[in-house]
Amino acid sequence: xxxxxxxxxxxxxxxxxxxxxxxxxxxxxxxxxxxxxxxxxxxxxxxxxxxxxxxxxxxxxxxxxxxxxxxxxxxxxxxxxxxxxxxxxxxxxxxxxxxxxxxxxxxxxxxxxxxxxxxxxxxxxxxxxxxxxxxxxxxxxxxxxxxxxxxxxxxxxxxxxxxxxxxxxxxxxxxxxxxxxxxxxxxxxxxxxxxxxxxxxxxxxxxxxxxxxxxxxx
Length: 218
Ligand SMILES: N[C@@H](CCC(=O)N[C@@H](CS)C(=O)NCC(=O)O)C(=O)O
Known about the structure:
Blueprint: E1 3-6, H1 12-22, E2 27-30, H2 41-44, E3 54-57, E4 60-63, H3 65-75, H4 90-116, H5 125-145, H6 158-173, H7 180-190, H8 193-202
Parallel strand pairs: 1-2
Antiparallel strand pairs: 1-3, 3-4
Helix pairs in contact: 1-3, 1-6, 1-8, 4-5, 4-6
The structure holds glutathione.
Residues 7, 10-11, 33, 38, 50-53, 64-66, 101 line the site of glutathione.
């Protein structure tokens, strides 16, 4: 019995998508970012920092999306969604699994500044500018990695589930012009049946009310 603790549209989408790619049966338990549930003792017993995702599997609960993704790949090697431990290609796979989280943290800062912080006077324009530049740098790195590749490490892997989650959000803060490889990659992701099923099961409303968030005037 596998249970994914999930918030629609959050990093738990990575795990939801991977579970679908692996064809595993699981139960979804939905939580909210705003009703205090993630701070409850019940949830903190599963995730000490009160964050999703958490995956209950094999008689334990695993937190941190990257750890869950690596664990699922290691315990389902026949699916071929990660190079084997010790294989030469493994390092590149791990780089992109963890790069995805570096990038997601920058996106999260921008979400806080542009969307969640109220009143608007509480925002920091220097931080917003800095994080927009840092996000653009990660996108340049991604654009270069995808040059001549359909997927991050060549063939589809769980690193794509980690990073694919970021794409919709990154284009809210940095315009897509100049990133043709990422734009085409997004289309390839959207055309994966498992991704489509994952979105249907766990998508929910987006936090974004606008297609694009300009930096406020200085
Ligand atoms: N590095 C963690 C980050 C998890 C994380 O920050 N999740 C967000 C949702 S995307 C969350 O649960 N936020 C709740 C909070 O900060 O209170 C991972 O990849 O699992």
